[in-house]
Amino acid sequence: MHIEISISNQVLTLYKKKSIIKRYSVSTAKKGAGEIMNSECTPRGEHVIAEKIGEGAEENSVFVGRVQTDESYDLQLRKLQPNRDWILTRILWLKGIEDGKNKGSGLDSYERYIYIHGSPDDVEMGKPGSKGCVRMKNSDVIELFDLVEVGTRVTISEK
Description:
Helix content is 10%, strand content 38%. It has 159 residues and is mainly beta. It has a single domain, classed as L,D-transpeptidase catalytic domain-like (Beta Barrel). It has an eight-stranded mixed β-sheet, covered by helices on one side. The chain has a two-stranded antiparallel ribbon with strand order 5-6. The longest helix is centred in the last third of the chain and has 10 residues, at 138-147. The mean pLDDT is 96.
């Protein structure tokens, strides 16, 4: 398996060898592409899935610091915390593998906590809006989570 994420098209494509298995609409960073720490940009280049977090969690389960809370996302919770960056349902934590590009001091994707993760159903996909991560619909991230393994290669490009 291999994942390709197109920032310009806001699409995540899952491949098995050279065959397309599935395409998903996603939402990458509102501030565009970039690798610098605290930039809130989506990092480009070659990555791997370093960790899979949330197996078996209910859809809309809320995660903070990669730990599932006892919260379940709904509109009432959103009203109480309107500026919260919601990380829901599943997390695929990415690790850059290119020294000096997305791995290393000041630009490390893993240390920046860059994930592929679920988001509220009212978050628009196909349009940049995240703080660096790759957002997916909850049902889509559950499906993807079940199809990939730790070590799966992830290529993120602007094209």
